[in-house]
Amino acid sequence: MSRAELKKVVVVEKIISGHMTNAEGAAVLGLTSRQVIRLKKRYLTEGGAAALVHRNRGKKPVHALSDETKERVAVLYSQQYVGSNNCHCAELLTERDGLELSPSSVRRILLAKGLKQTKQRRRKKAHQPRERRSQAGALWQIDATPFAWLEDRAPAFALHAAIDDATGLVVGAVFRPTECREGYSLVMMQGIQKYGIPLGLYSDRHTIFRSPNEPLTVEQELAGETKPLSDFGEAMKELCITHLKALTPQAKGRIERLWGTLQDRLVIELRLLGVNTMEEANAALPALLRKHNRKFAVKPKSDERVYIKLDSSIRLDYVFAKRELRTLGQGNTLSYANKTYTFAKPSPYRLDPRMVVEVRETFSGEVIVWYDDTAIHLVEIEKLVRKPKEQIKKASSASPRKPASVHPWKTTMSQTQIKRTTKKNDFQDALYSQHNSYAEALW
Question: Does the CA dihedral 77-80-83-84 come out positive or negative?
Answer without folding.
Answer: negative
